Each structure stands twice: as structure tokens, then as C-alpha cells.
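Methods — Computational structure assignment.
A single polypeptide chain was analysed. Its primary sequence is given first, followed by the predicted tertiary structure written as C-alpha cells.
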Amino acid sequence: MEEILNSKLGAIYIRVSTDKQEELSPDAQKRLLLDYAKANNIDVPARFIFIENEKDVNPSIDIAFKLADALDVDVRKLF
């Protein structure tokens, strides 16, 4: 129970620059970021995982950043 009370809420934003991106695939980005979240006691609900590619811009992430700013929430960009 204490772990739940001490956890933080997080979101993950994954961006793929091109179809040929091999350096850090979306799956690799997601895995690394979820590992980071777990190690830092951050809960990331599936609905807060945003994936954007060069053809499919997801406006939800802009809304999430504006909400975080309005609520004075700590936002960390890892990549």
C-alpha cells in the first residue's frame, strides 16, 4: 500500500522520425521509458503512452504538456 501512496503519475511520449529509424525503435523507447518509470516509482497508465510518427501527429501530447504546465507538474524529457 505504501508503494501506491508514494508513486507518481507519468506519461510517455514516443516519436518516430522516419520509417527507416533503426537507432531506437518505438518498442525500444517504450521499454526504456517504462523501465525508468518503474525504477523511479512512476505509474504510467496505458492511456498516457503517446506514439507519434512523421505521418500521424498526435495532438494529445500538446494537450498533456499544456495541462502539466498549467498544474505546475514536473516534466522530464529523457530523449
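Note: Helices lie at 2-6, 26-39, 60-70.
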